[in-house]
Amino acid sequence: xxxxxxxxxxxxxxxxxxxxxxxxxxxxxxxxxxxxxxxxxxxxxxxxxxxxxxxxxxxxxxxxxxxxxxxxxxxxxxxxxxxxxxxxxxxxxxxxxxxxxxxxxxxxxxxxxxxxxxxxxxxxxxxxxxxxxxxxxxxxxxxxxxxxxxxxxxxxxxxxxxxxxxxxxxxxxxxxxxxxxxxxxxxxxxxxxxxxxxxxxxxxxxxxxxxxxxxxxxxxxxxxxxxxxxxxxxxxxxxxxxxxxxxxxxxxxxxxxxxxxxxxxxxxxxxxxxxxxxxxxxxxxxxxxxxxxxxxxxxxxxxxxxxxxxxxxxxxxxxxxxxxxxxxxxxxxxxxxxxxxxxxxxxxxxxxxxxxxxxxxxxxxxxxxxxxxxxxxxxxxxxxxxxxxxxxxxxxxxxxxxxxxxxxxxxxxxxxxxxxxxxxxxxxxxxxxxxxxxxxxxxxxxxxxxxxxxxxxxxxxxxxxx
Length: 466
Ligand code: FAD
Ligand code: NAI
Fold this sequence. Notes:
Blueprint: E1 2-9, H1 15-24, E2 29-33, H2 39-44, H3 46-63, H4 79-104, E3 107-110, E4 112-115, E5 120-124, E6 130-140, E7 144-146, E8 159-160, H5 162-165, E9 174-178, H6 182-193, E10 197-201, H7 213-225, E11 229-231, E12 234-242, E13 245-252, E14 255-261, E15 263-266, E16 270-272, E17 305-307, H8 318-332, E18 347-349, E19 355-358, H9 362-368, E20 372-378, H10 383-387, E21 394-400, E22 406-412, H11 416-428, H12 433-438, H13 448-457
Parallel strand pairs: 1-2, 1-6, 2-3, 6-17, 8-15, 9-10, 9-15, 10-11
Antiparallel strand pairs: 4-5, 5-6, 7-16, 12-13, 13-14, 18-19, 19-22, 20-21, 21-22
Helix pairs in contact: 1-4, 1-8, 3-4, 3-6
Bound molecules: flavin-adenine dinucleotide (FAD) and 1,4-dihydronicotinamide adenine dinucleotide.
């Protein structure tokens, strides 16, 4: 049996970051991974989805450039080439993690790890081989998988999960997307831009529940403009194959509906990978959602066992997993000062326009009764947004009326995914809107939307009338 100071189970953005940091702290570290290094995020999540988002945007921009004097004719789509380009990026990044492991001295063990009592993991390789790996401390980072709904078993031919939807070799003529959440809307954008007729089926009465409705509105509007249909308060009940198509039976406000499409994507959320891990052999229990409860230092109820990423409560996001990986590694190395601050986790939806938020929603802050100041600035009045042909959306800064401390920022607009970093720093440092207003922002930039929102919150907007 090989023995390690720390064993990390799973090499997604949580696990691989934790393993690298542990090794950098001088701990003898192994990382066990059953699939490809980089986990969901790098191989079948964040990175491939953003590649297809970028490629489809490039295609649409070229087609829609006439108002800027760009007349592109004979533009086509070679989906196989697009997929090849996407896979080149993911494989390069995954190999990069292997090199980082080597360079930092992390032992990469390939296979599926299952706990077999305190201090021990049994790893089964794809070839049936088995090895025992001993640990002093264990970091669990096994991630999450798509949820299936009754009547819609994934076959990744007709009924797709996100992995299948990211690997299509042809643009379907029609696509039903069950779930108007993050995955649903990002991939709706991709396939609508590439020419598919997309219908979104969402159980609740709005898209992206959890994000302020006015922030979601520009995205909804733009999708409608591309011909996307949003069926809200609608449930997918069943499906059957009819003449090479899939006929869906839906229920909308108590009334039955049918819809025929070429493909169906089911994106109704993800469940933590905490089953069949042998957690019971070390006495570790799960909460009602199947996740592992942890404290701010990622400690579970069992001494020497930490957990990070999608298997722990909170949003299922790559940057949350990575930060938790760093926090867990600090604890494992005996530095107990690091802690996770959930308020500072940004949330980005890579739709067009992009949505990016940090801190509570406006609706939640209003419900809390806390006295707040709000500064909002529309991209329509921003020079850089005009030159980028991207004037949809706004930035909103919310601060505490009494202290001026920034509490939350919501942005919907081009480059929101980049702009939110400044807002994240503001929350982390407990900056005030005055701090943002005093920060000299380059001109012309989209980031000036935040500067203007701060001025507006302070009651003296420069480029808008009060
Ligand atoms: P994972 O990335 O799920 O990695 C867990 C790893 O553990 C996997 O590689 C798995 O093979 C391995 N594993 C599991 N069990 C075992 C075992 N018993 N033995 C060995 N190995 C095991 N988040 C963002 O922040 N931004 C985005 O843009 C974004 N886009 C996304 C797009 C899609 C389509 C999807 C599906 C997700 C997206 N996410 C995004 C979410 C993000 O991918 C996850 O939050 C993130 O990957 C979680 O990281 P993790 O380390 O907890 O787990
Ligand atoms: P989600 O939780 O974002 O959205 C699921 C949606 O499906 C919700 O709107 C929900 O009301 C709806 N729904 C649930 N059951 C339904 C049913 N039976 N019929 C119709 N609608 C139903 O989950 P999603 O989109 O699957 O993404 C999973 C997670 O992956 C996200 O929560 C996010 O954490 C992560 N992710 C993050 C991204 C990013 O950061 N940009 C991109 C993609 C995924």
